[in-house]
Specification:
2 copies of one chain form a homodimer. Chain A is mainly alpha-helical. Chain A has 9 helices and 3 strands, in the order αβααββαααααα. Chain A has helices at 14-27, 39-46, 50-63, 81-105, 108-127, 130-146, 151-171, 178-193, 197-218; strands at 36-37, 66-69, 73-76. In chain A, helix 6 runs antiparallel to helix 7 (151-171). The first copy, chain A, is elongated, with a radius of gyration of 19 Å. Chain A binds chain B through residues 12-13, 54-55, 58-59, 62-63, 70-71, 83, 86-87, 89-90, 93-94, 97, 150-153, 156, 160, 163, and chain B through 12-13, 16, 54-55, 58-59, 62-63, 70-71, 83, 86-87, 89-90, 93-94, 97, 150-153, 156, 160, 163. Chain B binds a DNA duplex through residues 13-15, 38-40, 43, 48-52, 54, 70-74.
Chain lengths: 223, 223
DNA sequence: ATGCTGTGTATTGTATACAATGTACTATAT
DNA sequence: ATATAGTACATTGTATACAATACACAGCAT
């Protein structure tokens, strides 16, 4: 059984502390898809009462990381191959849209940071540490997404990204794709810098296409 | 004070019954933006305890209809002009994408239903009943959205639509725009029938543009 | 052996009690 | 008169008690 722990440093409502703890456990694979989440059990493990645990689980359900059946209980959400394709189809459209907006809206300071993030990612791939690589990749894309200045777009994309984070993490372990990823980042970045909207959209779209291919070739789905 | 009531017919967890009651009250304007939602108060009004009310409020917060401040309480979410533009910007992109997918994926049965829905909307505008008109409009667009077959896309768009439902309801009251809406529906429908992707995307985009103009001209925002 | 029924247990759903916190108001000192 | 501290109250946060439900298993009948 996973050994969950709470970070009590932050002064937040317990439900949020529990939420972050569970969320992290799910995204890192500590809690695997299909695993049941029982309130009393988790509450005892975390040293709190059922109430904040319930509220955290409900929040995770709304985020799509947990699926619940009334009067039955909650379990870590599984994603089917079809569900993964659906998520990526929406992401492809929204990432392309982000790229378009970034061409129009990214300011100089952000461009500078994007260039740094690009280089940081290239460097990260040399470490062979998947956690470091994943973080560098997120950093790079976050700069682009945030440059749109559209909070709703940002949160929508982040929610979609969260759905597949667990699977994307797996595919980043394949070192053979790193070179291609760096090249794709460069294409996207250069297109944004030169405000070439069509090229930026194509680069963003291709980037998702390749992710999909890699994930599907590596992960085996049950249904 | 609004007189909320519960529909106990359905055999659902109380939290869901309360959720639907509050959601409906917010979307219809019975509960106005900025109004505080106090747990004990609502619980007494609805004849339940605080627990299901709390859970319903949290769910509404995640849906974006309620905003909460820890240890302070919850209130019906207000949307700023900027927030509205953000929502519509994402919807524009996703509706155009839906139109594109609809061109490729809509089957004959759905096309038939779309045609019926188009005519039902035209007929609905004659009733001058905003509720009827709004429903007919939703029906028309739902057929297009559902024809994509992408559950994630459907739920994402529905969530965005919900954010602005209250405001869209207002603008549908303006009869002078009805003729234009019908024409826009026809353009979108015909483009889908003829599988003209570029035209469909343009029609969907224009449809949102006009909504934005109408809403902004009619609603006065505080900030 | 198989299917049905009843009972017990585990778990979620709901209510309520108690703790912590934030806000408004009052009294007091300057 | 104004600012500040303190206190009372309203409200949310958390824990726990109780109710309802679902599931598993045993016992019985066929």
């Amino acid at each position: 059984m996973a050994k969950l722990s709470l970070n009590m440093d932050e002064y937040l409502p317990l439900r949020d502390v529990v939420f972050h703890a569970l969320r992290r456990a799910i995204l890192t694979g500590e809690l695997v898809p299909g695993e049941r989440l029982m309130e009393i059990h988790l509450a005892q493990q975390l040293g709190v009462s059922r109430t904040p645990v319930r509220e955290a689980i409900h929040k995770l359900e709304l985020e799509g990381l947990v699926s619940m059946i009334p009067r039955k209980g909650a379990m870590v959400a599984e994603i089917s191959e079809h569900g993964l394709k659906d998520v990526l189809e929406v992401r492809r459209a929204l990432d392309a849209f982000c790229a378009e907006l970034a061409c129009e809206r990214m300011n100089d300071e952000e461009k500078e940071r994007l260039k740094e993030a690009y280089e940081a990612f290239a460097k990260a791939t040399e470490t062979k540490d998947t956690t470091v690589i994943a973080k560098a990749d997120v950093d790079f894309h976050d700069i682009i997404i945030n440059s749109t200045g559209n909070e709703r777009l940002i949160s929508t994309i982040n929610n979609l990204a969260e759905q597949i984070y667990r699977y994307r993490f797996e595919y980043l372990k394949d070192e053979s794709i790193h070179k291609g990823l760096i090249a794709e980042h460069k294409m996207l970045m250069d297109a944004i810098f030169s405000k070439n909207i069509e090229e930026a959209k194509r680069a963003a779209s291709t980037h998702i296409d390749n992710q999909e291919k890699s994930i599907l070739s590596q992960i085996h789905f049950k249904d």
